[in-house]
Every structure is written in structure tokens, then in C-alpha cells.
Task: inverse folding
């Protein structure tokens, strides 16, 4: 990630540094500040005279907690910088690194922890001045963050290598902490006296703390004025906590007083909370990203499936006319290859080639139109003409498998509205499937096609065969795409039939029994605008009434 060359513009609401805080986040931040104030007033009031005494394990435990917490926060913020390349983020990440690192000399020099007078050649003033510089340093980084954040966004972006920038920041921060440590240890004799002995503070401490509070208040003010992101909100909470921590720390003017212990908690608890919020926000963003990636993948798969469906439809629908072209062309060649060529039969075969070629062309056009919304042309049709044409298309196949056709067509049927080629495709598919089913079974092969009026408003076509029939569970799934029981089947024909019929506001269904053949039915609405509609329906209905 560090080497990533992608720079995400700062105005993208994507990360903590540019994501606006939600209402609940603002409320939570306010609740934390109020809780800190309550803790402050309890310490300053009822607990003001309470002296818990020195707890040896407290300082190392506290120091370790601050170090781990602030180091993790720094790492997270450096990663945010690597994504956004914002100099402001680099500044605040360095601030957290500074606080994590300065805790180390603070712990080492603390009197009575590792040595009675502290390590690193520390003097009486060293630890307290480390604490003061720590609490002056962090708001300085916060001020730098707010000022850089507000700069021209194009200038605020780091254009170079993120890794190099982070490395430089780490080196500079480590150098600053080392310099501060040397200053307060080697130069401790020259430091103002804020500590009287290992436990008690001097009156000067109050003035120093007063200055630190003002410096932190300035950082808070700048954050308040320029606040806009989740990170700004939580930094305000942290700086508030710093102010309260500083004030509480001098309440008893001594280490290990109730105020001093409380001030450690006031500083630590909000920064742990900030880390938790950062982790929560990052996890939420990660989850959102994951959802977006999955949605994108699903969309791509759906698009691929549509592509598959288009290519499968073309292959499926064009196969039939191509077979017909090859068969007729072969027949034509046979007529010409005879000792005495039969030109009439050859001409007839070539005509069939031309017709099948036109049909393939029309089928391709139709498939394109089917996937192109709004490009369809519907006309008023006689469904029996559609059936007759479909039978002509599958004539060769019917002959090959010696299928007897019973067509119960009704000359007086009302006209329907539809698209000729698409409806023809449906009938051809149903007949071709029926032939396939009968081809697998011995015995008489009879195909019955019937057209009739249904509920006065629809014309129903039924295609019945004497084939192998269907398993009950297949009846439910037969119209699903990719459902096939044939070794060379694609399972697309019936799903195309269903989408065509549904696009015509009709319905398609099957009734079948295993071993007893299958009957496919489909309906299409009658052409209500047709002049002969009522006559036709009337006469058909009359024809259907029982005689006498
Ligand atoms: P394909 O013919 O490529 O398999 P279809 O969508 O046209 O695709 O048909 C799906 C399946 O429906 C077929 O594999 C077959 O099992 C079953 N089927 C279709 N028509 C009939 C029929 N008339 N009799 C028995 N089974 C049929």
C-alpha cells in the first residue's frame, strides 16, 4: 500500500480524514466530553483531599498503555496518509508517534521506577519537563494538522513517494524526541524548577500548566473552526481531554494525589476511545468496500451471463436454419450429380436454401431486437399462418423421424398482435423439442397442434407429442435457463420461448406425465382493434358450443 501510486482526491468521502461525522458520532463525542467533565468535577470536588498514595505499578502500566495506544493510532494514520497523501494527515500521524515515543524517556526518567532518581542521567526536573513538552508537542502537531488541512487541497497533497515521506517523518520525530530527551536530561540544571521533590510540584508548575492549557485551547479552537471530518471531531475530544488532564494534574500540586491519578485517566481513556473509533470506522469502511467489490463482481457476472445467454440464443436459434441449409444444399447437389441432372428438383432445393438463409438472417435480427428494448415491431397476425410456417421450417426433421402431424387449426380464429418471427421461433422450438422427445421412444410418433380461443381474449396454441414425457420436478424447472436433459442441449430454447411469450403479454406452460408425452400450451392476446374480432370470437364460441 505504501508504494501505491494511486492518489485519492481529498474531496472523496472515503476515509476518516474526509468523511463527515454522523449525528450519532457527534452525540457520542459530546457524551464522552460530558463524562470527562463529570470525572473532572468529581476529582476537583469530593475527591480533592483524597490521597491514595504511591502505587508502584501504576506509572509503568500507564506508560505502556499510552505507548501502545498512540503507536497503533500513528500507524493507522500513516496508512491513511499513504492512501490520501494529505500533508495534514502526515502531521497528525507524526503527532501520535511523538506522544508514543516521548512516553519512553518519561518512563525511564520517572523517579523510583527503574532507578531511585530515574535513568538516562535524569535530574529532578527531567520527568516533569518531558511531560510538559509532551503536552505542548501534541497540540503543536494538531495546529499543524488544522493549518495544513485548510491549505489549498492541491498544495496539501504529497506528490512524492508515500513511503519516503513516512520514513522522513518517523526519522524527524525520533530525532525531536531524542533532542528533547537530551535537553531535559543533560541540560536539566538549566530547566525552570517546576518540581520541588520527587512528589511535590512548585508554584511555577501552575503557570507552566496555564500556558499549556492555553496552547491546547488554541489547537481546540482551530479544530472547532475548521472541523469537518470524523477525525477532526475525535481530535477535539482528545484535545479537550488534554486540557482537563493538565488542569486536574495540578489540583493537589503533587504526584500520586487523587487529581494526579485522575488526570492520567482523563488523558488515557479518550485516546483509547479514539483508537477504538478509528478501528470501528476503518472496519466499517472496509465492510462497505467489500460489499461494493462483491456487488461489482455480481454485476460483472450478470453481464457475462447476459453475454452467454445472447451467444447461446444465437447458437441455438441459428442451428436449425443452418441444418436446413446444409440438408437442402446436399439434396440440390445430389439432383445435379445424377447422370441425368434433375434441374427442377435442384432449383427447388436451392430455393429452400435461400428461404432458410433468410430465416437465419431474420432470427439473428430478432435476437438482436430481443435484447434491444423498444426495437420490436408488432403486427396483426393469424396464428395459424405462424404455425404453418413453423411446420414448413421443421419439415425435414419431421420427415427424418417419421412423425405424423395432426394440425387442428381453426380458420375463423381472431387475429392476434405479435411479432411473426418471434412467435414462429416459439412454435419451431416446441415442435423441435417434441420431435427430440419422440425420437428417443419407440412406437407411434404423433405430433398434434391445436389453436383455439381461450376466455374470449386469448388465442391458445397447444403442441402435444407422444414422446417420453417429463418427470414431475422437471415440469417446474423446464423454463429455467440452462435446464436441459439432452447431452448436446443448451437449455436455452424454452427460456427464450417464455421470455417471448411474456413479452407478448401471454403465458406458457406444460402438462406432462412420464412416459405419456407432453403438451406445451401458450397464449397470446387477440388483436382487439381487429375489425373481425367480435365476429370471429362469436363464431368460434358458437362453434365450440355443444351441438343441438
Ligand atoms: P434444450 O432443448 O437445448 O435442452 P430447451 O430449453 O428447449 O433446451 O429444453 C429444455 C429441456 O426441456 C430439454 O432438455 C428437455 O429435457 C425438456 N423438454 C422440452 N420439451 C420437451 C418435450 N416435448 N418432451 C419432453 N421433454 C421436453
Result:
Amino acid at each position: 500500500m505504501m508504494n501505491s501510486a494511486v492518489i485519492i482526491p481529498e474531496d472523496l468521502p472515503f476515509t476518516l480524514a474526509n468523511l463527515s461525522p454522523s449525528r450519532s458520532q457527534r452525540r457520542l463525542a459530546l457524551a464522552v466530553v460530558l463524562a470527562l467533565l463529570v470525572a473532572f468535577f468529581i476529582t476537583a470536588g469530593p475527591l480533592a483531599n483524597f490521597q491514595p498514595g504511591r502505587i508502584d505499578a501504576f506509572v509503568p502500566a500507564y506508560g505502556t498503555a499510552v505507548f501502545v495506544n498512540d503507536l497503533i493510532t500513528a500507524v493507522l494514520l500513516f496508512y491513511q496518509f499513504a492512501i490520501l497523501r494529505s500533508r495534514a494527515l502526515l502531521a497528525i500521524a507524526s503527532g501520535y508517534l511523538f506522544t508514543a515515543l516521548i512516553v519512553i524517556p518519561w518512563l525511564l526518567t520517572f523517579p523510583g521506577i527503574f532507578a531511585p532518581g530515574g535513568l538516562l542521567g535524569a535530574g529532578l526536573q527531567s520527568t516533569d519537563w518531558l511531560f510538559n513538552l509532551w503536552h505542548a508537542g501534541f497540540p503543536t502537531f494538531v495546529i499543524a494538522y488544522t493549518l495544513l488541512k485548510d491549505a489549498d487541497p492541491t498544495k496539501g497533497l504529497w506528490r512524492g513517494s508515500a513511503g519516503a515521506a513516512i520514513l522522513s517523518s518517523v526519522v524527524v520525530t525520533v530525532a525531536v524526541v531524542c533532542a528533547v530527551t537530551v535537553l531535559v536530561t543533560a541540560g536539566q540544571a538549566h530547566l525552570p524548577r517546576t518540581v520541588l521533590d520527587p512528589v511535590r510540584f512548585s508554584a511555577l508548575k501552575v503557570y507552566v500548566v496555564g500556558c499549556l492549557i492555553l496552547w491546547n485551547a488554541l489547537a481546540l479552537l482551530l479544530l472547532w473552526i475548521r472541523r469537518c471530518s470524523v477525525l477532526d471531531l475525535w481530535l477535539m475530544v482528545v484535545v479537550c481531554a488534554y486540557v482537563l488532564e493538565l488542569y486536574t494534574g495540578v489540583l493537589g500540586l503533587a504526584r500520586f494525589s487523587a487529581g494526579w491519578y485522575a488526570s492520567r485517566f482523563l488523558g488515557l481513556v479518550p485516546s483509547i476511545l479514539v483508537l477504538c473509533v478509528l478501528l470501528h470506522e476503518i472496519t466499517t469502511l472496509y465492510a462497505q468496500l467489500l460489499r461494493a467489490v462483491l456487488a461489482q463482481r455480481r454485476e460483472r457476472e450478470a453481464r457475462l451471463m447476459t453475454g452467454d445467454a445472447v451467444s447461446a440464443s444465437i447458437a441455438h436459434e441459428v442451428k436449425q436454419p443452418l441444418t436446413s441449409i446444409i440438408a437442402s444444399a446436399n439434396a440440390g447437389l445430389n439432383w445435379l450429380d445424377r447422370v441425368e441432372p434433375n434441374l427442377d428438383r435442384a432449383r427447388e432445393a436451392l430455393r429452400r436454401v435461400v428461404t432458410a438463409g433468410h430465416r437465419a438472417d431474420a432470427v439473428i435480427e430478432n435476437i438482436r431486437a430481443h435484447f434491444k428494448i423498444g426495437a420490436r415491431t408488432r403486427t396483426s397476425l393469424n396464428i395459424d399462418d405462424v404455425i404453418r410456417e413453423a411446420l414448413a421450417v421443421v419439415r425435414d426433421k419431421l420427415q427424418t423421424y417419421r412423425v405424423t402431424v395432426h394440425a387442428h387449426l381453426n380458420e375463423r380464429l381472431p387475429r392476434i398482435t405479435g411479432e411473426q418471427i418471434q412467435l414462429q421461433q416459439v412454435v419451431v422450438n416446441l415442435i423441435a423439442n417434441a420431435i427430440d422427445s419422440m425420437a428417443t421412444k419407440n412406437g407411434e410418433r404423433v405430433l398434434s397442434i391445436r389453436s383455439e380461443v381461450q376466455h374470449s381474449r386469448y388465442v391458445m396454441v397447444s403442441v402435444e407429442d407422444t414422446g417420453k414425457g417429463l418427470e414431475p420436478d422437471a415440469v417446474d424447472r423446464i423454463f429455467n435457463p440452462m435446464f436441459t436433459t439432452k447431452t448436446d442441449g443448451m437449455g436455452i430454447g424454452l427460456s427464450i420461448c417464455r421470455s417471448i411469450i411474456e413479452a407478448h403479454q401471454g403465458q406458457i406452460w406444460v402438462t406432462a406425465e412420464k412416459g405419456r408425452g407432453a403438451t406445451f400450451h401458450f397464449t397470446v392476446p387477440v388483436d382487439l382493434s381487429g375489425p373481425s374480432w367480435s365476429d370471429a370470437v362469436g363464431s368460434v364460441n358458437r362453434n365450440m358450443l355443444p351441438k343441438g
